[in-house]
Specification:
Oligomer: single chain
Number of strands: 3
Number of helices: 8
Length: about 180
């Protein structure tokens, strides 16, 4: 499946040309323990081999898959989209950090904080991998006042990216 250019940071490849032989797509959710196990294993054991053994033959695409039964899933994926937009090369290091610390974003860990408080914590994680946390938070923050048009449900700076991502994810999952 094609990857929109603005999401290119989700692809991991080495010396890829238009003649890539194989594409492996991984549908992962940042607050799913099984996704964490898969990503952390992949990042430690498989990704380092690609440039050495599979350069020009394999690319891996990290497809962000929001799972609605994990309420904080959307928030964490939005933070990853903010990192992707600001510093695409930091997407994989940010993902590594989020998966390592995913329990901090499980239901019981976020239930007593506001959405913007969770966004603030996620922005601080982005800072740990070298992305400006204020810019990340600026893309994530939800206003507490109506928009100029009176809108009360306008989302944040990455809402449109989430809409595209979810469309692709669900469409792909239906084929499996």
């Amino acid at each position: 499946m094609a990857l929109a250019p603005k999401f290119a940071g989700q692809a991991y490849s080495a010396d890829v040309t238009p003649k890539v032989v194989h594409t492996l797509e991984l549908f992962l959710d940042y607050v799913c323990p099984f996704s964490a196990k898969m990503f952390l294993t992949l990042n430690a054991s498989i990704l380092p081999l690609i440039p050495q053994q599979y350069a020009g033959k394999l690319q891996i695409i990290f497809r962000q898959q929001i799972q609605p039964w994990h309420p904080s899933s959307t928030l964490v994926h939005e933070a990853a989209l903010a990192v992707l937009r600001l510093s695409p090369e930091k997407f994989y290091p940010f993902s590594q950090l989020v998966f390592e610390r995913q329990k901090e974003f499980f239901d019981v860990s976020v239930v007593k904080e506001t959405r913007n408080e969770t966004y603030r914590r996620l922005a601080k994680l982005a800072k740990e991998v070298g992305v400006d946390d204020e810019k990340v938070y600026g893309l994530l923050e939800i206003a507490d006042k109506p928009g100029e048009d009176g809108g009360l449900n306008s989302g944040n700076g990455v809402t449109d990216d989430v809409k595209v991502m979810v469309k692709v994810g669900w469409a792909a999952l239906l084929v499996f």
